[in-house]
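Please go through the protein record below and explain what the tokens say about the fold. Record follows.
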Amino acid sequence: MHRVVGDEVFILMADSRMHWLRNATARTLWEGLVAAGGEGTTARALAQGLSLAYAVEPAAALADVLDFLRELAERGLIEARDDSDYRKPAKGPN
């Protein structure tokens, strides 16, 4: 379960752990993952959206997106099948 409050996202896991995404960029990426749902998305697709939304160079956006997605995968918030296939949520409800 997640809630968006301003530019922040609060994510409550099934085991009662809470994660806090603290800025608009993280919110934008999280919303991209949520919108993709079970179909998943790619780091490149998320980076393209980030590049357009924030006028960031595509290569810099991709590097930032990959770092962000790896962190989410390490926390168990998303499934990462490889560096091009990301799915939200890893477990539990939206």
In short: The helical segments are 24-36, 43-54, 58-74. The chain has one domain: 24-94. The beta strands are 2-5, 8-12, 18-21, 79-82, 85-87.
